[in-house]
Amino acid sequence: MKVAVQREDFDLGAEVRAISRSDKVGAVASFVGLVRDVRMTLEHYPGMTEREIRKIVDEAAKRWQVMDCTVIHRYGDLQPNDQIVLVAVASAHRGDAFAACEFIMDYLKTRAPFWKKEHRAGGATWVESRAADDEAAERWKQGER
Amino acid sequence: MKVKLLFFAALREQLGRPAEELELPANVNTVTALRDHLRARGGAWANVFAPNRPVRAAVNQDMVQPEARIKAGDEVAFFPPVTGG
Q1: φ, ψ of residue B32 in degrees (nearest 5)
Q2: C-beta of residue A100 within 8 angstroms of C-beta of residue A34
Q3: How far is B48 from chain A (nearest CA, A)?
Q4: Cβ of A34 under 8 Å from any chain B Cβ?
Q5: Interface confidence (ipTM) of the complex
Q6: Partner-chain contact A108 B85, CB within 8 Å
Q7: Which of A62, B5, B41, B71 sits at 20 to 30 Å (Cα–Cα) from A32?
Q8: In angstroms, rounded to a whole number, what is the distance separating the alpha carbons of residues A69 and A3?
């Protein structure tokens, strides 16, 4: 299980290959989040960020068969279309890989201590948290899936 | 007792500092009591820690509820609701 919080970009293909080496792996689900529309700066809480992401990955591994997993989240200055976040999960079957990948992403959005500041023509503003993100994380608790 | 405070994102900017070491009175031993203690500084502190502001807290890098206890040597962080991903 790899968790990285870094300024540098990442290579989706290389990360997927790295968790696909076992001949027991039958499915890899991956998600890449991109910067939409505007330039932004991402701040995080060094130390806590990695801990929170590890907790989320551990929780996913309790619920589904997770043979390997990589989470990379970038911070610092990012441009429109830059990659921000990668979640990739390897499992024997696609059901576990899809579910664990979506679960990790939903929880990451509400638990990992990152903050986005958008730079628009009118000035820089901190992004407000979205109720829709809380709801996306909440539905995993209610057993709706 | 002495604690280390950390502030992130909009809170860090509004308070004009990323961190500080603070000696607390013995009765300031929960996150809520610490919020009240900081709000009493007035100015930007009163705004940031106003009761209706959605401020989150972590003690020793674990997200906590307002009633969480604080002890000497703890690292207490205050920040807005997170917006990563």
Answers
A1: -60, -45
A2: no
A3: 14
A4: no
A5: 0.94
A6: yes
A7: A62
A8: 8
